[in-house]
Amino acid sequence: MKPIEIKKNVYWVGALDWSVRDFHGYTTNKGTSYNAYLIVDEKIALVDTVKEPFKSDLIQKIGQVVGSRQVDYIIVNHVEPDHSSSLPALMEIVKPKKILCTPMGKNKLLEHYHREDWPYEEVKHGQTIRLGQKTVKFIEARMLHWPDAMFSYLEEDRLLISSDAFGQHWCTSERFDDEVDPSDLMKHAAKYYANILLLYSPLVKKLIETVGKMGLEIKMIAPDHGLIWRGDPSRIIQAYGEWSDQKPKRKALIIYDTMWHSTEKMARAIGQGLAEEKISVQLLNLKANHRSDVMTEILDAGALIFGSATLNNGMLPSMADMLHYVRGLRPQNKIGVAFGSYGWSGEAVPLINQAMEEMKIKIVDPGIKIKHYTTRPGSL
Ligand code: FEO
């Protein structure tokens, strides 16, 4: 794919990764993109790079845009290797005069690449640089999604280059939100939020407030992954406001794994009862649903009902994996119940309760344990 001009003299020069299927336990079943942006003015600045195996895509695109002109600055919005691991190669080829990053960004670059000799220049929240006609303002975006992160806002273009925030792991030949199905786009954006940013929801809220107080008009949001928000950037800002609020819907998830279908029968019975109460309910068997897809459903659910048979005095491994993953992302405002069948000891339910207590999920029932089959075969 060639460079794409997203605003006058601002180019997408990123790379498409159609094949990646995992991002730290999140299944990226539609691949992803590593977006980098080149701002061409009296000075030329590159914002972020791409994952190292794609460095030649980036270098080729930069050459197609600028020819023999020098890239003056590399702005490092985020050091995680999917955005910075091409930097060592670029430093050799491009030889920029400055690497602009937050103080934490400089630390992280040193920790990753061990190059004291690179021309770092630390920038502060609210600081601007002039490239000629264009002005770049830096906005600290700590913990979105690493401590080093910042946004770069092009004042004249009203373009927010937003690092990981507002992204999606979705590889497409299209580059803009108004070129794809909006419901597909929002599903990918929700999955990304639920699996990467949910933990940082209080910081997301604060950052949205900060950007509001700065009075920045935003006409376009260009994240480091997925589609660029050109048609309606307010849509994703509003969605981030809602997702970070974590207001629960009247929606229950029955998340379970089963050994001899007994716990599954319990799951179906619980699901039937909830449906009769007009509660939207989903049964999510962990043998059939990846943890990151379950996490996406957890984003707006009100009730989490976890079920596991007991195996070797514990819960089934898939449930331990799921609870560990949920614990890390710290969803708020949920109620929970545990259930499961057992043969003789029955530890799964108390262990799930313990995990829910640690996660501050409000346990509304001590849990349902049933020995062996829950009822006569075939009656559910
Ligand atoms: Fe896309 Fe935090 O890296």
What's the layout of helices and strands?
Elements lengths: L3 E4 L2 E3 L2 E3 L4 E2 L2 E2 L4 E3 L2 E4 L3 E4 L7 H12 L6 E3 L5 H4 L2 H8 L3 E4 L1 H11 L6 E3 L5 E3 L4 E6 L9 E5 L4 E3 L20 H16 L3 H13 L6 E3 L10 H13 L5 E7 L4 H15 L3 E6 L5 H8 L4 E6 L1 E2 L2 E2 L1 H13 L5 E8 L5 H11 L3 E2 L4 E4 L9
Parallel strand pairs: 8-9, 9-10, 10-11, 15-16, 17-18, 17-19, 19-22, 22-23, 22-24
Antiparallel strand pairs: 1-2, 2-7, 3-6, 4-5, 7-8, 12-13, 13-14, 14-15, 20-21
Helix pairs in contact: 5-7, 5-9, 6-7, 10-11
Bound molecules: MU-OXO-diiron (FEO).
Architecture overview:
- This protein is of the alpha/beta class.
- It is built from eleven helices and 24 strands.
- It has helices at 55-66, 81-84, 87-94, 103-113, 182-197, 201-213, 233-245, 262-276, 291-298, 317-329, 348-358, and strands at residues 4-7, 10-12, 15-17, 22-23, 26-27, 32-34, 37-40, 44-47, 73-75, 98-101, 120-122, 128-130, 135-140, 150-154, 159-161, 220-222, 251-257, 280-285, 303-308, 310-311, 314-315, 335-342, 362-363, 368-371.
- The strands form six sheets. A seven-stranded mixed sheet has the order 1-2-7-8-9-10-11.
- A hairpin with a 2-residue loop joins strand 4 (22-23) and strand 5 (26-27).
- Helix 5 packs across helix 7 (233-245), helix 5 crosses helix 9 and helix 10 (317-329) packs parallel to helix 11.
- Bound molecules: MU-OXO-diiron.
- MU-OXO-diiron binds at residues 78, 80, 82-83, 145-146, 164, 224-225.
